[in-house]
Write a structure and sequence with these properties.
Strand order of the largest sheet: 3-2-1-4-5-6-7
Radius of gyration: 22 Å
Largest sheet: 7 strands, parallel
Structural class: alpha/beta
Strand content: 5-15%
CATH class of the largest domain: Alpha Beta
Number of strands: 13
Order of helices and strands: EHEHEHEHEHEHEHEHEHEHEHEHEHHH
CATH architecture of the largest domain: 3-Layer(aba) Sandwich
Length: 393
């Protein structure tokens, strides 16, 4: 990709003469950790008295940006076509000029290329958030991914990701900062979930009264480990439990059919149910006796484990990636080897067997752990500190 040839300059107000303008770019505002972080930071920018702009193709979370006082602008930033990326760079350059943007914050690779080219052309600051390890099976993919390491500041969403960025792109500590994703403890608060919300979900999912519930939240995709959990439940051999796979297949109907076939093959039709996307996850967690994150590949952060702990639920997660930072074995949950149904089955059995007083202590420790290190307030304050740093404020 070639940079636009002639830089465009525009008069800038002196530092401190006006509130900064921050533009966040990402493919869409549908669902996911990057999207949730964008919305939360957009609200924090407005609360600081700054101007918050978000550019994407749109989605159901646009309303949240606008309700917080931010502005959403539609642009086809989901394209990976080089011509489209250059066209988006031109559009973003015009937007930067028109709106006096000071910082462009990129959260995904294709939009990041457009943002990088536009920011370079316009002479404004460029910040990135590195959200995953990204597939890099060849030199081209490694180069394509490298845009996420080109920011004046590169925000890693966990120490696991920070180490990955250091190793792959040799980004020094002068540019690299770790800011874990944040959980909204006002939303994920067991004391604020009404009995009516819990009952409504239990009825919708046809859960029998008094039966232990094992829950794996996460979109239906192979690396989330649904098949590992199904095999673990077959090894568990209990018929007095229910397992809920909570997540959309996002069009992956073939994988859903494979899961349904495996469930039937293992004789778990009455035990395991796929219940699709849930719009009330705090209430869903309240139904769970054990929350499982069985990802076969390392999670960059692992929002499910953090959310479940905020709700005081016992967590069993795979022992790699961000889970090593969010789950404290023996205190807030269990960590098990990847792709190991037997180990997962043993941990689930232990979690189901803990007495009520131990469950209460574990729940309190779990919520305290999240409150100490993984709140949305901490994430937003740290992100605004990064913005102030690049602005020299």
């Amino acid at each position: 990709m070639n940079h636009p040839t002639q830089p465009i300059t525009r008069p800038r107000a002196a530092a401190g003469d006006r509130p900064p303008v921050v533009l966040q770019v990402l493919p869409a505002l549908v669902t996911g950790g990057a999207e949730r972080g964008t919305v939360d930071v957009a609200a924090a920018i407005v609360a600081a008295g700054w101007t918050s702009l978000v550019v994407s193709t749109g989605g159901p979370m646009v309303g949240e940006v606008e309700r917080a006082g931010g502005e959403h602008i539609v642009m086809p930033l989901d394209t990976k076509n080089p011509i489209g990326i250059h066209a988006n760079a031109e559009r973003l350059a015009g937007l930067i000029y028109d709106r006096g943007v000071d910082i462009v914050h990129a959260r995904s690779r294709a939009p990041a290329w457009s943002a990088f080219l536009a920011a370079k052309r316009m002479g404004c600051h460029f910040v990135t958030t590195y959200h995953g390890t990204y597939n890099a099976q060849n030199a081209f993919k490694r180069w394509y991914n490298s845009v996420m390491a080109r920011g004046e500041r590169v925000i890693a969403i966990s120490e696991f990701i920070a180490e990955h960025v250091r190793a792959r792109y040799d980004v020094g500590d002068d540019r690299l900062v770790t800011i874990p994703r944040g959980i909204d403890l006002a939303v994920f608060d067991p004391t604020r979930v009404s009995a009516e919300r819990i009952i409504a979900l239990a009825n919708a999912w046809r859960l029998p009264d008094g039966m232990p519930v094992i829950m794996l939240p996460g979109r239906l995709t192979r690396w989330k480990g649904q098949t590992v959990l199904i095999e673990a439940l077959a090894a568990l051999g209990r018929t007095d439990v229910r397992c809920l796979l909570v997540g959309s297949d996002q069009g992956r109907t073939g994988y859903r059919e494979k899961l349904q076939h495996l469930i039937a093959q293992r004789g778990l039709d009455r035990i395991v149910h796929i219940v699709d996307l849930c719009r009330d996850m705090p209430a869903a967690y309240m139904l769970a006796d054990v929350v499982v994150s069985a990802s076969t590949d390392p999670e960059a952060f692992g929002r499910v484990a953090a959310e479940a702990q905020a709700m005081g639920r016992p967590v069993v997660a795979t022992d790699h990636g961000g889970a090593r930072e969010t789950v404290i074995p023996g205190e807030t949950g269990w960590l098990v080897p990847a792709r190991d149904p037997a180990a997962l089955s043993t941990a689930i059995a232990e979690a189901l067997a803990i007495p009520p007083e131990t469950r209460d202590r574990l729940g309190a420790a779990s919520r305290a752990h999240v409150a100490k290190s993984f709140t949305v307030e901490r994430m937003c304050a740290s992100t605004l500190a990064v913005y102030r740093s690049v602005l020299g404020r």
